[in-house]
Amino acid sequence: MLMLAMATQQLFAQSVIDRFFEKYEDDRSFTLVSVTPKMFSMFSKLDINTGEGQQFMSVVKKLKGLRILAKEDATDGNKLYREAAAFLTRDFEELMTVRDKENDLKFLVKENAKGNISELIMLVGGDKEFVAMSLVGDIDLNEISQIANGMNIQGMDNLKKLKKNDKQ
Fold first, then answer.
1. Which strand (E) or helix (H) includes residue 14?
2. Is residue 5 assigned to a domain?
3. Number of domains in the chain
4. Quick check: 56 and 150 in contact, CB under 8 A?
5. Which residue of 43, 48, 66, 92 could cross-link 108, Cys pair, CB 3.0 to 4.6 Å?
6. d(CA 67, CA 50)
7. Mean pLDDT of the 115-123 span
8. Is 151 exposed, middle or buried (0-12, 13-18, 19+ CB in 10 A)?
9. What pLDDT digit, counting tens, does each position of 120-162 carry?
10. Residue 1 placed within a domain
11. Do the beta carbons of residue 148 and residue 157 sit within 8 Å?
12. Which of these ranges, 21-25, 118-122, 157-161, 164-168, has the smallest mean pLDDT?
């Protein structure tokens, strides 16, 4: 009974989008990037002398993991986008959707009890590409622009103008 309870707890601790990542992580037609909590803890020990660098490092200390699954030259990017979006539950709240003639881009968040972001999901799907990103941590929405500036990930630049009061 105890083992069943622990297994159930571990299942709920796992992000719902993790199941999507697990489905495709061994498929060599995708690019997979996974940054572990250990790597983020190592970043936090770097000595950064600039004010901007120190600010970025204070945000990085709050991150627990980053996973990116991307497929370039994807003929099924729109299908993958819809499939990944189907994994997301009502626990996630949509922050922003951007649709143009080539791609759909969606940002969703899951909040913790403090009202901070515990997980940020970015999905990009189009005729020729697909990207799914999961960023886990304890992030204030106002810190997202610092993360977007520090990470060269397609689509993240759309978050640079987002502020906590814009969410409402």
1. none
2. no
3. 1
4. yes
5. 92
6. 28
7. 91
8. middle
9. 999 999 989 999 999 999 988 777 766 666 665 566 666 655 5
10. no
11. yes
12. 164-168
- Full domain range(s) for residue 80: 15-166
> For residue 3, what pLDDT is reported?
40
Helices and strands, counts by H and E, the chain: 6, 6
| In a domain? residue 6 | no
Which residues, including other chains, have CB under 8 Å from residue 83's CB and lie 6 or more apart?
Answer: 20
Q: Kindly tell me the sign of the dihedral angle through the C-alpha atoms of 43, 45, 46, 47.
A: positive
How crowded is the C-beta side of 34, counted as CA atoms within 13 Å? Answer: 8
Both tokens of residue 103?
A: 């791609």
Q: Report which of 14, 3, 17 is spatially closest to residue 89, judged by C-alpha positions.
A: 17
The verdict on residue 4 lying in a domain is no
